[in-house]
Amino acid sequence: MRIDGSITMPAPPEQVWALFTDPRALQKATPGCKSLEAIGPDEYQAQLSMGVAGIKGNYAGKIRLIDKREPAHYRLVLEGSGTPGFVSGNGDMDFSAEGEGTKVVYSWDVQVGGLIAGVGQRVLGGVGKMMIDQFFKTLQAELKKGV
User: Fold this and answer.
1) pLDDT category, 36, cuts 50, 70, 90?
2) What single string gives the DSSP state of each residue in 58-90?
3) Dist CA 30 CA 32 (whole Å)
């Protein structure tokens, strides 16, 4: 499944970069994320609880930030599994100044398998879009609070 888009954040690139690489902010913004703990430089162990179309479960996985070019780009790589199935993916995050804010362009490839894959691409795509919207809204609220 491919997920692409962009959003303008109300802060300069350096501030947006700091927020998007802060594990506490990422945990707070990621829907269903129960914990995000550092296990190495730019590598985290994650615990998530999520559900799609009546299929609910807990996932354990890893998240890595690679190809970092502060404050312009990084690639996030994730892998996780749980009773409902597995998810793996990677996505590019690009940050550029736009007026007084920062344009964030994202491009993700995500694969799912197991029970959760049985709900269909259309449902998963809608859920993925909803989760991304929630993620960015949470981070925008953090920027407005002055984090």
Assistant:
1) very high
2) EEEEEEEEEEEETTTEEEEEEEEEETTEEEEEE
3) 6
Q: What pTM was estimated for this model as a whole?
A: 0.84
The domain defined by 2-145 folds into Alpha-D-Glucose-1,6-Bisphosphate; Chain A, domain 4 (3.30.530)
Chain segment 75-131, per-residue pLDDT in tens: 999 888 888 778 788 889 999 999 999 999 999 887 777 766 565 555 555 666 777
H/E segment holding residue 143: helix 121-145
What's residue 117's pLDDT? 58
Quick one: how far is CA 124 from the chain centroid?
15
